[in-house]
Backbone:
């Protein structure tokens, strides 16, 4: 699924546009804990999160996630916007809850982008 | 282990500067890429550095990350001045955390940091002097390694 | 709108999504009124509504306390994370069904949505 299509499905507005036009998503990863994203997200995924900090953007950059979808119309601060521009990460915002956004995207066929596995004992 | 370092970088980390957390790690990532290190290794180093950097930001007064690139590996040391870790074994337990609510609100402090770092790296050593600080040394073998970054 | 039918219960969800029941098995006939996906306890404290299912990777015993305070229908721990004994006994005590799955939160949310939960 393209990023543009996913964004349309969740009725999101663009806060920081993707730097290079058409992006094909590898899947979707929903999380609020950046440690979870750092450990388990697959590259190329859309990150759905309720965490609006510049850490969100830096985590996306480190994990090669092209875009972040902020839920519930939360305020996105200047620092996060600046970090996103600097790191070339697209940021979108949907009025939907994380549950609804996941539901609609799964229904539309966007796969999960979570690496399996747990922590070493 | 007697190879010569072919690249050395250092970046400072400010304790309590939540809004800057992650800057050092994104700089490390860029520097390693420019040094021609393979993507998988860069990814693993960046993830481990980010977790370690957030540990410094959340718990210590200041610190720095130092990176040495060798033909076959990347060595990283993250040192800080701070309270240290009272019980290293406990700190390594997934889910255990001494982080504040502030840290948790940033999406960290869920007790996944050190386990994540261990998972990403090939060798890890953690030395802590309570009241002084922590030195975390990591080695990542280039091209191959544990594949955790894929 | 979903067609008129029996309300989805925690038991129905557990069967449809292949969840493992870890605690609170006496309370599985609770109806589900909604769902939320979050790993931030403070968010759930603020936004959880009675009868919601909470999908999370948090396994701390505090999650049960939060769920009980907000009268949630159940907690589903995603992605193969395993709550410890203290969390399990807290769930029994507070009568909060605690379930788990190896599936990611994203997938569990998608499948619960498919069941008509909104």
Residues:
């Amino acid at each position: 699924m393209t990023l543009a299509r996913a964004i349309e499905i969740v009725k999101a507005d663009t806060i920081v546009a993707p730097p290079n036009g058409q992006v094909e998503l590898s899947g979707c990863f929903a999380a609020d804990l950046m440690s979870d994203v750092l450990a388990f997200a697959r590259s190329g995924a859309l990150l759905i999160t309720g965490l609006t900090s510049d850490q969100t953007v830096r985590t996306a950059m480190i994990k090669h996630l092209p875009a972040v979808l902020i839920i519930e119309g939360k305020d996105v601060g200047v620092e996060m916007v600046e970090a996103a521009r600097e790191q070339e990460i697209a940021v979108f915002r949907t009025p939907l809850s994380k549950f609804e956004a996941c539901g609609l995207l799964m229904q539309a066929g966007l796969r999960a982008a979570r690496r399996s596995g747990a922590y070493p004992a | 282990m007697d190879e010569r370092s072919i690249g050395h970088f250092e970046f400072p980390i400010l304790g309590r500067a939540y809004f800057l957390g992650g800057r050092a790690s994104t700089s490390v990532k860029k520097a390693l890429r420019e040094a021609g290190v393979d993507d998988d290794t860069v990814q693993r180093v960046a993830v481990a550095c980010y977790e370690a950097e957030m540990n410094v930001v959340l718990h210590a007064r200041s610190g720095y990350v130092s990176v040495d690139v060798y033909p076959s590996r990347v060595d990283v040391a993250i040192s800080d001045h701070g309270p240290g870790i009272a019980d290293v074994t406990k700190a390594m337990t997934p889910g255990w955390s001494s982080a504040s609510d502030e840290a948790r609100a940033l999406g960290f402090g869920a007790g996944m940091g050190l386990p994540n770092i261990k998972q990403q790296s090939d060798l890890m050593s953690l030395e802590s002097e309570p009241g002084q600080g922590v030195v975390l040394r990591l080695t990542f073998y280039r091209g191959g390694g544990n594949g955790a970054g894929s | 709108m979903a067609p008129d039918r029996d309300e989805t219960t925690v038991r129905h969800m557990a069967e449809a999504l292949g969840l493992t029941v870890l605690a609170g098995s006496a309370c599985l006939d609770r109806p589900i009124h909604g769902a939320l996906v979050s790993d931030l306890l403070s968010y759930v404290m603020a936004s959880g509504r009675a009868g919601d299912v909470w999908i999370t990777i948090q396994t701390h015993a505090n999650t049960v306390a939060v769920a009980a305070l907000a009268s949630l229908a159940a907690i589903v721990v995603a992605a193969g994370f395993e709550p410890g004994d203290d969390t399990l006994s807290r769930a029994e005590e507070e009568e909060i069904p605690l379930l788990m799955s190896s599936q990611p939160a994203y997938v569990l949310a998608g499948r619960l949505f498919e069941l008509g939960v909104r």
